Structures are given as C-alpha cells and as structure tokens.
Amino acid sequence: MQLVDEILEAKQKIKEYKILLDEAIKNDNFDREIKLKKEIENLENICLSNEKTIDEMVYELYGLSDDEIKIVEGV
Question: Fewer Cβ atoms within 10 Å of its own Cβ: the N or the C terminal residue of the chain?
Fold first, then answer.
C-alpha cells in the first residue's frame, strides 16, 4: 500500500535528518538546523496525514459509527 510505504520512507528520512540535525547543532550551523527542522516537520506531517487516512479507511471498512471511532481513538 502506497500510504504505508510513504510512512516508512518518511520515518527513515526523519531518523537520518535527526542525526544531521544533531551535527548541525553541534557545529552551530543555524541555517542547516532550521532547514532540517522544517524538513523533519514536513515529514512528520506526511506521516500523520497518511496515518489518519489509513485510520479513516479502516473505520469505513468496518462500518464504525462516530461513537465507536471515539472509543478506538480514546477520545
């Protein structure tokens, strides 16, 4: 499934970028630090968006009501 692949790729990039971010912070490279933080945030947003889409697909597949969805999500 494409959404899952995108999540896995994004999480791998986040892991790599966090290592680079630590290096940028140690070297006082503020421009690179800002760029990496923005990229990590964008990748995290991709993960959240795809996870939400997958959740909605599962809820629809199982025909969950709004109340049942709230229970599953712990709301």
Answer: C
